[in-house]
């Protein structure tokens, strides 16, 4: 059984073990979002995060084998599972394009592929949404995020992305494998907003509790 991320924050997908507090800035109706305390006080630059699973066994194994062992079969498995989760959300954000979190050229040469783009390719086919592969680039080659704490991740990834294509007026879903502190997605989302994107969602496979 995969560890499902059921009761979670609508903005950052943080698991909520207790009964969550509704977003009081919205009307108290069926469309009100459930947000964690951090997102209530410091809103994310994206409108939602869909992260159907928790980063626990066997999900962590699947991600690591895809990311570090070159086992691309897991991109198909992850992409299929993510597409099912997205399609099961009728209230989801409706993007015009998908943007996979880009790798720096140095990291791309080392790994040989971008795992987020591999997953996004499956999602694009299943959801009939095009991928924009050229509008965003990673301009810095930071230290691996997995070795850093939350604050260090934010500083490490700050201004890491540049938008070189025209995304003005586009609704975008950022695709990645795991959401940990959200530093990467926030940085990319901020860059896309500055370039004129109309709105941004984040769709990932797993959320770190």
Overview features:
209 residues; alpha/beta; Rossmann fold; six-stranded parallel beta sheet; two-stranded antiparallel ribbon; 7 helices; 16% strand
In which range does the helix fraction lie? 25-40%
Domains (count): 1
CATH class division: Alpha Beta
Average pLDDT, all residues:
89
Low-confidence stretches: 20-31
Q: What is the terminal-to-terminal distance?
A: 18 Å
Q: Report the CATH topology name.
A: Rossmann fold
Shape: globular
Largest sheet: 6 strands, parallel
- Second rung of CATH, namely the architecture: 3-Layer(aba) Sandwich
Q: Helix tally?
A: 7
The secondary-structure class comes to alpha/beta
Radius of gyration: 16 Å
Based on DSSP secondary structure assignment, what is the total number of beta strands? 8
What is the helix/strand order? HEEHHEHHEEHEEHE
């Amino acid at each position: 059984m995969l560890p499902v991320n059921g009761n979670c924050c609508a903005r950052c997908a943080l698991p909520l073990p207790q009964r969550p507090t509704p977003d009081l800035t919205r009307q108290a109706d069926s469309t009100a979002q459930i947000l964690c305390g951090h997102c209530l006080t410091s809103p994310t630059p994206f409108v939602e995060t869909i992260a159907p699973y928790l980063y626990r066994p066997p999900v962590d194994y699947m991600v690591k084998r895809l990311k570090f062992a070159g086992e691309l079969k897991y991109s198909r498995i992850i992409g299929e599972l993510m597409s099912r989760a997205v399609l099961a959300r009728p209230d989801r954000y409706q993007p015009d394009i998908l943007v996979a979190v880009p790798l720096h050229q140095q990291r791309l040469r080392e790994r040989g592929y971008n795992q987020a783009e591999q997953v996004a390719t499956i999602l694009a086919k299943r959801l009939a949404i095009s991928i924009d592969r050229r509008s965003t680039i990673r301009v810095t080659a930071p230290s691996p995020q997995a070795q850093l704490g939350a604050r260090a991740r934010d500083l490490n990834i700050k201004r890491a992305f540049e938008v070189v294509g025209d995304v003005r007026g586009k609704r975008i879903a950022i695709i990645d494998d795991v959401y940990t502190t959200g530093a990467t997605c926030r940085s990319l989302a901020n860059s896309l907003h500055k370039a004129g994107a109309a709105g941004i969602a984040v769709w990932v496979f797993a959320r770190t509790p």
